Amino acid sequence: MVVANRKMNGDIPSNQLFLEKLVAETQLHQQADYVVCMPHPYLYQAQSILEHTHIHWGGQNMSRYQSGAHTGSVSPPMLKEFGCKYVIIGHSERRMHGHDTDLSTGERFEVAVKSGLIPIFCMGETLEEYEDGATDIVTIRQLNAVIHEIGVQGLAGGILAYEPVWAIGTGKAATPEHAQNVLGFLRGHIEILDAELAQNIRILYGGSVNSLNAKQLFDMPDIDGALVGTASLNPEEFIAICLAASNAS
Ligand code: PGA
Questions:
Q1: Are 21 and 235 in contact (CB under 8 A)?
Q2: Which residue's C-alpha comes closest to atom 9 of ligand 1?
Q3: pTM of this prediction?
């Protein structure tokens, strides 16, 4: 699975070029799933172009409330109305700048599932935590906040993504071995609670994935795909990552 996290980038003409090219050039390579998470104002455009194609789309965040006095927020039914299948929850940029907490991300994971959306739940440690050897402690704490909210079986309704903060947008991806170790550890933690779920749940890696490192990452046994930021802004780069995923499947 390859997910584009376009963040706060793009405009109507460049989105159109990107989405149409993505549809055309992955048409014969559908062994992987492709998702494009757009800024909310462009969801209608994504729906218009991607409806009836093999590409899915989603939001980059959502409110835990269904409606009401929440200026600037977007509700789950609004995402659904524009055809979203997925929504990113707990991205580190939201945790750092949007005041997302472990508790609120856990709650929104549950609300997403109950609203018929598939949350793509992000976890990851900062550089300082990485240097302190706290990767496992931090990612488990973030994951446990979701399990606490929705129960271990509830995880089955979502997708997990390990995104070390120090690798996001820095051009310094985690090595495939490091990413594999963490994903293996997370899967092992789930396995203790539910062995079947551990086998089936998708866990992605995110953080400076590009066309050069994608294959090595996808060759790792526990890496089921990628969440891609910067490289999703370049259509050729992103399509090359999609094809690497399709070939690895
Ligand atoms: P990046 O971003 O690919 O630019 O590192 C990944 C993400 O933030 O999801």
A1: yes
A2: 229
A3: 0.97
Ligand 1: does its nearest atom lie under 6 Å from the Cβ of 163? yes
Closest residue (by CA) to atom 1 of ligand 1? 229
What is the number of the ligand 1 atom nearest to the C-alpha of 122? 9
- List, in sequence order, every residue forming a beta bridge with 37; answer none if it has no partner: 5, 58
Q: Indicate whether residue 119 lines ligand 1 (CB < 6 A).
A: no
Ordered domains of the chain (ranges, CATH): 2-248 (3.20.20.70)
Ligand 1: does its nearest atom lie under 6 Å from the Cβ of 207?
yes
Pocket test for ligand 1, best of 3, 38, 227, 232 (most atoms within 8 A of CB): 227
168-224 pLDDT, tens digit each: 999 999 999 999 999 999 999 999 999 999 999 999 999 999 999 999 999 999 999
Q: Tens digit of pLDDT for each residue in 17-54?
A: 999 999 999 999 999 999 999 999 999 999 999 999 99
